[in-house]
Amino acid sequence: MAKGKKKIYQKYEEELPEKLLEETKKETKDLNQKQTEKVMEEVLKEYKKRQVEPGEAAGAIAAQSIGERATQMTLKTFHVAGLSEGVSVVQGLPRLEELIETRKTPKKEVCRIRPKKEIEKNKEKVVKIAKKIEETKTNDIGKVEEDLVEEKIIIKPDMEKIEKLGIEMNEIAEKIKEKIRRKPEKIEKDKIIFKPKASTLKSLRRYVEKAENTRIIGIEGIEKATLVEKEENGETRYEIHTDGSNLKEVLKTDDIDPEKTDSNSIPEIYKTLGIEATRKMLYKELMEITEEYNINKRHILLISDALTRSGRPTPIGRHGISGEKESVLARAAFEEQIKHLLKAAQKGEKDELKGVAENIIVGNPIPVGTGMVDLRIDLEKQKN
Amino acid sequence: MDKETLLNHELVPKHEILSEKDAKKILEKYGITKKELPKIKTNDPVIKAIDAEEGDVIEITRDSPTAGKTKYYRVVIPA
Predict the structure, then answer these.
(1) Counting one residue from A and one from B, how many pairs have CB atoms under 8 Å apart?
(2) What is the pLDDT of residues A255-264, one digit of tens each?
(3) Which domains does chain B have, with CATH numbers?
């Protein structure tokens, strides 16, 4: 590339976004310096023309764009799709609500686990990982019986099942020992006997329950791990999707690619990967559910930014963005008027009248669009 | 999970601590004070990993679906 042209591009690096600059670079490849200069000027002019104008109520427009489609979505509520994927996911309006309210406990949490590159095409090995992740309790691999006369607990695992999972009797005994804090009395070939010092039958029962619910292998909270086939460049690779999510522990699993493994649970992403990852995931998930409704990306981007602005996922609504507004009048206009007004009076709060709602209430022009413009006197010029 | 995995995770964009001078430049460019920047908490896993402190301005280089790459700024606040 000619030196002169490079300099021209550099001049515009600050002002044009990367993608646009790259595109214009491609288009102006065959032009000479003077022509390029001219083109760049025009591009910048057009770009500036298309920017959102100062004072535009971008938030209200985003809300409208999504609200309108959400009405359509209501008709499709509770539509269950993706049975072939093995793991059912909350979709449509309920999911949209969940995301926008950034609920602490989403209904269906799913971890999407990417195996390591070397083995992602090997079904057997991926199945092995899935087996290791799935939470398996004593109940799932056998029976726990109680001997009321001798005050014993007898654990009888299903030999076929534990062989398939590759668990040994010692491991089971060890796990249960940890849980009920009693040493096993005897480990036989097909059963383990515990003799806890239970004074009453009731407490013996409690030991049985504890033993039944002991996690032998797997990760807490992962109820089911399902293999999902993905088609990529004509080749099939496998992913593991789980029912229930525990991202922090899942990321520690061997033989997976932790950098590409994620979860659809916003609270978990926030805890393990931070606020920026949360924003990205919110955007991804919102885009996915609104895909068929063709909402402009920019609205979704704005919403994901608004939801993560305060450093934690903030719900829209009473306990979030609307309920934490600075202006008393704006808060009172939304919900719970009396509570807000009383509290503000007690504290002697002051309303700066900077927002929209409060200015409507007091009868001022709202600071949106042309209402944002103000007159100021240049004192320096007045002196002369 | 170690630091490396966290910082290289697909969902985590690049976070950088800005020097006092650069931070001032940014604030001047947008005509705002530190208080008005979006926030990030001190107990955020990424903030812990890059050893940022309260009051630091963090420059985040995001992949933007519309613009290619964009810069975003957050100020570190106590948890």
Answers:
(1) 88
(2) 888 888 888 8
(3) 3-77 (3.90.940.20)
CB contact under 8 A, A301 and B65: yes
| Record: contact A273-B10, CB cut-off 8 A | no
Give the ipTM of the model, two decimals please: 0.93
Q: A240 with A130: CB under 8 angstroms?
A: yes
Chain A CB contacts of B32 under 8 Å are none
Look up the CATH number of domain A325-372. Answer: 1.10.150.390
Q: At what angle do helices A266-273 and A275-289 cross, to 10 degrees?
A: 150
End-to-end Cα, chain A, rounded Å: 53
Q: Taking the mean position of all CA atoms in its chain, how far away is CA A104? A: 11
Is A76 touching B (CB cutoff 8 A)?
no
| Residue boundaries of the structural domains of chain A | 3-49, 136-217, 325-372
Give, rounded to a whole angstrom, the gap between the first and last alpha carbons of chain B: 21
Q: Given B1, B12, B65, which is nearest A252 (Cβ)?
A: B1
pLDDT tens per residue across span B33-53 = 998 899 999 999 999 899 888
Instruction: Give Dmax over CA atoms of chain A in angstroms.
Output: 108
Which segments of chain B does DSSP mark as H helices, in order?
Answer: 3-8, 20-30, 45-49
Question: Comparing C-alpha atoms, which of A188, A152, A158 is closest to residue A173?
Answer: A188
Which 8-state DSSP code applies to residue A117? G
Phi, psi dihedrals of residue A53, rounded to the nearest 5°: -75, 150
User: How far apart (Å, rounded) are the C-alpha atoms in residues A330 and A322?
Assistant: 8
Alpha-carbon distances of A359 from A329, A334, A338, rounded to whole Å: 9, 14, 19
